[in-house]
Specification:
By secondary structure, this protein is an alpha+beta fold. The protein has one domain: L-fuculose-1-phosphate Aldolase, CATH 3.40.225. It contains eight helices and seven strands. Strands 4-3-2-1-5-7-6 form a seven-stranded antiparallel sheet, with helices on both faces. β3 and β4 form a beta hairpin. It is globular. The two termini are about 20 Å apart.
């Protein structure tokens, strides 16, 4: 994908994020990556969605140098870069402060897999990170936010669970592209909403049996997936 097309895709993904109702004002951002050129396109910092234009998109390299654009990139840029460096198969990242997923993050509670809707998208509970230390916050806060996410996924597959809750903060999601990461953010928020309602209805509910979880996840993902139509 050319850089011009990537900028258009990331711009549209940011607009779609606003339309989805997951963000208000300028509370969130979407990025996409051109791995061949080592360049990342991301929303500019503090620009509200109703005035956002494709030319506002900022292009940075892996050292946060601005390659294209006249505005400052998102303050979360270093977090995005850290994830792109460590999760080599992802192509887009979305960060929101959506109400229900953020509530779980603030409660420092992972989102348990309680039903097949969750299992269709996430192969297990959506994890929560530890709190950053005082030193990590004071020195390279955004980069260290990315590092604690990577740390949390030490024994997890980011392609099978494309979301995380940063303790006391909010969710980050990723996907094959910028638009795919937005889709995962929408699914995460709905999943968090249903999980909270389920736990309120039955606080003793157990997680979905593993064999049902694996059946639902595998029929949509992986080499034996059979959900949907065959792409020709």
């Amino acid at each position: 994908m050319t850089l011009k097309k990537l900028k258009e895709e990331v711009w549209k993904a940011n607009l779609e994020l606003a339309k989805s109702g997951l963000v208000i004002f300028s509370w969130g951002n979407v990025s996409g990556i051109n791995r061949a050129e080592g360049l990342i396109v991301i929303k500019p910092s503090g620009i509200e969605y109703d005035v956002l234009k494709v030319d506002d998109m900022v292009v940075v390299d892996f050292n946060e140098n601005i390659i294209e654009g006249t505005k400052r990139p998102s303050s979360d840029t270093a977090t995005h870069i850290e994830l792109y460096k460590n999760f080599p198969e992802i192509g887009g990242i979305t960060h929101t402060h959506s109400a229900y997923a953020t509530s779980f993050a603030q409660a420092c509670k992972e989102i348990p897999c309680l039903g097949t809707t969750h299992a269709d998208a996430f192969n297990g509970s959506v994890p929560v990170t530890r709190f950053l230390s005082k030193e990590e916050v004071e020195i390279d806060y955004e980069k260290n936010t990315g590092k604690v996410i990577v740390e949390r996924f030490k024994n997890l597959n980011p392609n099978a669970i494309p979301a995380v809750l940063v303790a006391g903060h909010a969710p980050f999601c990723w996907g094959k592209s910028a638009s795919d990461s937005v889709k995962n953010s929408v699914i995460l928020e709905r999943t968090a909403f249903m999980a909270l309602n389920t736990l309120q209805l039955n606080s003793k509910i157990k997680e979905l049996p593993e064999y049902i979880l694996q059946k639902h996840f595998s029929r949509k993902h992986g080499p034996n997936a059979y959900y949907g139509q065959i792409k020709k």
